[in-house]
TrEMBL record, chain A:
Record keyword tRNA processing present: no
UniProt source species: Actinoplanes cyaneus
Domain ABC transmembrane type-1: 114-306
Cellular location(s): Cell membrane
Major location (coarse): membrane
Topology with respect to the bilayer: Multi-pass membrane protein
Name of the protein described by the UniProt record: ABC transporter permease
Keyword check for Endoplasmic reticulum: no
A Pfam cross-reference name: OppC_N
Transmembrane residue ranges: 45-68, 118-141, 153-173, 179-197, 236-259, 287-306
Automatic annotation (TrEMBL), chain B:
Record protein name field: Peptide ABC transporter permease
Family the entry assigns: Belongs to the binding-protein-dependent transport system permease family.
Membrane topology reported for the UniProt record: Multi-pass membrane protein
Transmembrane stretches, start-end: 12-29, 101-121, 133-151, 197-217, 255-276, 305-328
The UniProt record lists the keyword Membrane: yes
Domain ABC transmembrane type-1 intervals: 95-321
UniProt subcellular location: Cell membrane
Organism ancestry: Bacteria, Bacillati, Actinomycetota, Actinomycetes, Micromonosporales
UniProt signal peptide: none
Keyword Ribonucleoprotein: no
SUPFAM superfamilies in the record: MetI-like
From TrEMBL, chain C:
Record domain Solute-binding protein family: where: 88-473
Domain of life, source organism: Bacteria
PANTHER family: OLIGOPEPTIDE-BINDING PROTEIN APPA, PERIPLASMIC BINDING COMPONENT OF ABC TRANSPORTER
Pfam families to which the protein is assigned, alphabetical: SBP_bac_5 (PF00496)
Keyword terms: Signal, Transport
Family note: Belongs to the bacterial solute-binding protein 5 family.
Organism: Actinoplanes cyaneus
Gene Ontology cellular-component annotations: ATP-binding cassette (ABC) transporter complex; periplasmic space
Protein name from the UniProt record: ABC transporter substrate-binding protein
InterPro entries in the cross-refs: Peptide/Ni-bd, SBP_5, SBP_5_dom
A Gene Ontology biological process term: peptide transport
UniProt GO molecular function: peptide transmembrane transporter activity
Amino acid sequence: MNGPGGMATLADHKRRRIDELTARTAEGGGVSLLRDAGRRLLRNPAAIVGGAIILLFLIIAIFAPLVAPHDPVQRFPELTGGLTVDSIPGASAGHPLGSDPLGRDFASRMIYGARQTLFVGVLATLIGLLCGVLLGAIAGAAGGWVDMLIMRITDVMLALPSLLLAITLVALARQPTQWTVIVAVAVVNVPIFARLLRGSMLAQRESDHVLAARALGVRQRHIVTRHMLPNSLTAVIVQATLTFAVAILDAAALSFLGLGDPDINRAEWGLMLGVDGVRYLEVRPELAYFPAIAIILVALGFTLLGESMREALDPKNRR
Amino acid sequence: MVRVVLRRLSQLGVTLIALMTLIFFWLRSLPGGPVDALLGERATPQTRETLTRALGYDQPIWVQYGRFLRNVVTGDFGNSIRTGEPVADVISRAFPATVELALAAIVIAVGLGIPLGYLAARHHGRLLDNATIVVTLVGISVPIFFLGYLLKDWLTQGTHLFPPSGRISTGVENTGVTGFFVLDGLLTREWDASADALWHLILPAVTLATIPLAIIVRITRAGVLDVLDEDYVRTADAKGLRNATIRKRHVLRNALLPVVTTIGLQTGTLLAGAVLTEKVYNWGGLGTLITDSISGSRDYPVLQALILLAAVVFIVVNLLVDLSYAVIDPRVRVR
Amino acid sequence: MRAPGRQAYWRRAVIAAGVTTAMAIGAAGCAKSDRDSGDKGAGGGTFVFAGAGDPKNFDPIFNDDGESFRPIRQMYDTLVAHKPGTAELTGGLAESWSNDPTGKIWTFKLRQGVKFHDGTALDAAAVCANFDRWSTMKGDAAQSQMIYYADVFGGFAGSPDAVYDNCKAQDAGTAVVTMKKYKGAFPGAFALTAFSIASPAAMKQYGADTVTQSGDSFSYSAFATEHPTGTGAFTFGGWNKATGEITLNRNPDYWGEKAKVDKMIIKVIKDENTRKQELRAGTVQAIDFPAPADRKALADEGYTVLPRPAFNILYLGINQKNPKLKDLRVRQAIAYALNRPQLVQTKGPGGSKVADQFLPDTVLGYAPDVQKYEYNVDKAKQLLADAGATGLTLNFYYPTEVTRPYMPNPQEIFTVLANDLQAAGIKVTGVPRPWNGGFKDDVQQFGKQDLHILGWTGDYNDPGNFVGTFFGRPKDEFGDQAMTDMFSAIDKADATVDQAAKKTAFEQVNRDLASKWLPAVPIWHAPPALVTTKNVQGLVPSPLTGEQFNTVSISK
């Protein structure tokens, strides 16, 4: 069902890029490729740096209650005392980064921010991944008109710029919550994962071990769940790593547009940057700088790791 | 051939009708809706009722749907709730602004990206190369609205190097011809208007260009590295061809193929980026229109038309590309 | 003006060419400084003002928002006007007005020699033509756009609720408007910008009454979009939608104080941050609604910050549809639980005040001795315990995607108030809703909330415009259908013709609202501001956000 001729439309390029990744992981197939790739990954400094950044933030996120000096939503009298609409108290004893616009401890909010930001990113990626994988698996396993229908829909979705699609989805939601943001950002990724998985499964359908299993009379469902799906997951994991960075950037952009998470009690970097950071940029620039730097670092970490994984899996680099 | 075109067009029709139906029923199932959007705090229950009647919302949904379809078929998308103007006017005014901005961004991204990528590849593994990689990676990871705010803060406040917002200075006469302000000034020989528009264009274009620029640098670099490794380049080198000739004839030309592809791929990124950039710089294009018609105002007629516009552009472009391929390469059959 | 950058320099020279020439001439004129109005070219130049949103159209009667009223106010006049900088009434197109003892017949003595921009004379017949036009407007499309008319005049000709009866031109200079009943809104409502007097000839020529429905919205006549014709200090110059600029030209034949600038441009800049930056770049000379956070910095940099006297109210609405909230003690507990002084200190725009009743102290009927509900968490907890409402859980609706002069940042306000309520043991579930995507619908029409925040900016100086609007009739917003004594008390106060008696009646209403009824908790009065560059003089901030720019001049 590839469009007639591999032509130069937007969707086709996105498609081709995805298919390329599929091919890389599908063609070698099996454990030896993965072991090779893993070895190459560990030798790549970019991957190490990326992984270290992610690990650091992960630790902060998991141990936030231990690391943070205070409760991120509590308002402190010593902070609200000096707080007015045009001045926000800076660092003081017990509050290393000072106050946020509502008299909460900014340092604690930054630390808990790791948790919420990773939560949004992981969930958005995971939901996109699961739906995409499910659709892709159905398309790949069923073939025929089901495949055709699913692929047509993903084509249309791929054609729309991701942020536009997310904005529209948020606007069409009944009530803005953190979940509308997560879902909107997730939906954008569904077609990518669907296509990825379907391509990989198609490639495997004709592969030796699947043919062998079929010849042995193994049931179709068993072949799909036990053989085809696990083998397709490598490509999906690489894509998920790259998706993550985009997801938190999109969430921040939605907040900036006033369409993000409406609960400003929640400490999430995108929200902190897009709402308070921009609004109080002149009053206290740190409110923008710190979340921005954190977002850049995390996005950088995931991009570095994802790109390195993609590189490592590239058969061209197998030497 | 004609049959193919006809069939594709009818497919387009079916897709559009399906999409419109979806949009229509979805929008009507939302709380608030146009009645809410049109009324301020001062509305009495009677006004609300009159308005509901005036908009025909008191009629059965299928009557409304019929009227909606008829309007759309006749090209009437209704009026913007926010400004009361016909939707077509609103969109056709915003369109050139965004195209102007996007083109400028592409020019910057390509103009800087290719030389930078090439230089990085030539200095493979050295400081310049590594610095380029780091900078481009950060470039991809920066939220661009934040970058826009920073640029604006640094370059328009205090120093006044650039204007903070808008497309042209107040009081500068520009006769509208195409809606592209820089071009309009040239066409009508209002040089100062053209210069002024260009001056307003620079910062937003730079902001919008960051992500495509970073990507183009990376792709060019990778492309050049690949090509440098190819046999024909080594052969050329061995033949003793001058460096400049090799560069021009073999390396760049071949390395640029993926770049061209990437530029096409970036159109979507540009549009998404335009939403953010236009908000930061008060740039009256499609991006602003999208934000304006969602955030705060819920301008459903405009939103509806914008979604349809996106779909039509996608379908038509696809069709044109398919057809042109069939024309160029007879081996490709249009199905 | 600060030193522009290198690149900017030649550019600026070009733009400013016209402006500076005019300014130079103006400076000479200024030095002589003649105060008597109506001389030529006093000041001169172009005044660029940054507004916050697109206007809808320029036909006064079809508008209800401040951004449309801003240009309309410069082009039209009302029968009765406000003294600059106050909500007090003074003569407008009518030099004087009187009311008969029944309060139903209004006699306007019109100013002599006033001409519309199209050259036709403003006389009693023209005034009556405007009243008649409004009351007999045909079609749902047009009627649904006349928000203020429906609110003040009850209904259109033929409707049983219609307040307006007829208008007679006694002679060319005297218009007599007869109402079917007395209404407290008058004469204040005659000063509403929506009821500006337009040229009947121009309205006829450009088909002003045609409002057509198109899809989910409306389109307006050429009168409303291209040929607005009033008597105001400025005439319509044009509306460039691509750049968002409305140009107004000085009306050399204005009857009052003629505009000091030759030209005024209202530039639409929606983002408050960008408005501020344009002010600093010197491309605009004044901005409306600066971000509260920026006011101090701008003042420190030498800009003139002009806070308007607060004429608004933000309140926390309580919905008695929830049986728990029917108990006055619970509502009082909510009032005690809110630390309003702290909210004003931390989040109030400069000059904000804690509100103890639903109208500002400049309005008739303000009672200084209402029950105040000083912040007291223990008392709140005690009251909740007495009412058997411990462990109360309430949903709290707040709007997103909006800022209002009385509510610059709803999310922050909600968060602070919810925090206070939690501290008193009331569990709060926040429900965010987009302003136009369900908030108004859910809160005002369906009453889905237990608590919500909303507010109001006064239209004219009358207690009915505040208290009457909120609590004068049963509303789903407050679920207060059972509070009949409240409605009748407000009704009676509103129908009192004698001003002294009306004052006493409304003072009692305000006292009872605070102690006996408490259908909502008043939060604050927050003054919105204007900021101008140093060289702008004569801009008088109006509590009603009804600034007129004819007094503005630009010096060197």
